[in-house]
Structure formats: structure tokens, C-alpha cells
Amino acid sequence: MKIQDIMKILEKDMKVAVISTADENNQPHARHINIGVANEDGVFFMTSPKTNFYKQLQSNPKIAITGFLEEDYLIQVIRIEGKVRRLGKDKLQEVLADNPYIDQVYPDEADRQSVQVFQLYEGEGFYHSLTQGHKYTFEIKQN
């Protein structure tokens, strides 16, 4: 399976994944995040500078992403560990385009305008179809 196929599953089928970070005291934190864009250039998502998530990404750029999808017989897991960088407003409209949760998470327009885009730009990933036994590893390289 090609990285493009795996990233399409993450973005279009799973849509939401758990992103784990560590804070300044090296304590773990995890939260569900809408996957804005996922392709061979990485995984793009957004958060507000007002959040602890943002502060954790700024102080330690290493994250883990885990996505899970169960459809009838098929159970798929995607796991990626790597580094992120802040892109600011770059790709914001693309990341927001299909986000069904934006109005609930950021109901205030001013808060919505303050969000920043992050990109997992470098890392290693693993795809596993639990029911079919398929396993693939992939690499995301810095561009």
C-alpha cells in the first residue's frame, strides 16, 4: 500500500485521530483532533494559541498520532510518530474546508481566526489492517 493510500484513509475515512504530546514536565497528554489534510507531505491540523495543546507543540515538537476505523468486517489502525512545525495561517483554509467540528470547537469567529496550522513533516508510520493482517510501514520526510 502506498503512502498516498494510507493518508487518504486517515483524512477521508478516519477523519479524527488521537494526537499525543508531552508537556514541559514530560507528562503525557492526548486529545482527539480533526485531521485537516493528510498526504505524502505529512499531516496537517490546527489549534488555537490559547490551548495547552498549542503550548505543548511549541515546547516539544514530537507527537504521536493514532487513528482507528471499524467498518463492518474491516478494522484499520494508522499510527505515526514524528515532529511537527507551526505553519501559522498557511493551509488554514484547506485544513478548515471539511472540518465539521469547527463551529462547536471555535464558535466565536475571533477564536476561529486565531487558530494556527501545524504540520507533522517528518516521521515514521505504521498501517495495520487487524482483520486482514496487512501491515505496512512508511516514512514522511521533510520538504
Question: What is the element layout, followed by pairings?
Answer:
Elements: H1 3-14, E1 16-22, E2 28-34, E3 37-39, E4 42-47, H2 52-59, E5 62-71, E6 74-88, H3 92-96, H4 102-105, H5 109-114, E7 116-129, E8 135-140
Antiparallel strand pairs: 1-2, 1-5, 3-4, 4-7, 5-6, 6-7, 7-8
Distance between the termini: 22 Å
**How many helical stretches?**
5
Radius of gyration: 15 Å
Strand portion:
over 45%
Apparent shape: globular
Q: Give helix % range.
A: 10-25%
Please describe the biggest sheet, giving its number of strands, its sense, and whether it closes into a barrel: 8 strands, antiparallel
Question: Can you offer a commentary on this structure?
Answer:
The structure is a single chain. The protein has 143 residues and is α+β, with helices and mostly antiparallel strands. Helices cover 24% and strands 48% of the residues. The chain has helices spanning 3-14, 52-59, 92-96, 102-105, 109-114, and strands at 16-22, 28-34, 37-39, 42-47, 62-71, 74-88, 116-129, 135-140. Strands 1, 2, 3, 4, 5, 6, 7 and 8 form an 8-stranded antiparallel beta sheet that branches. It is globular. The two termini are 22 Å apart. The mean pLDDT is 93.
How would you sum up this structure in a few lines?
By secondary structure, this protein is of the alpha+beta class. The chain has helices at 3-14, 52-59, 92-96, 102-105, 109-114; strands at residues 16-22, 28-34, 37-39, 42-47, 62-71, 74-88, 116-129, 135-140.
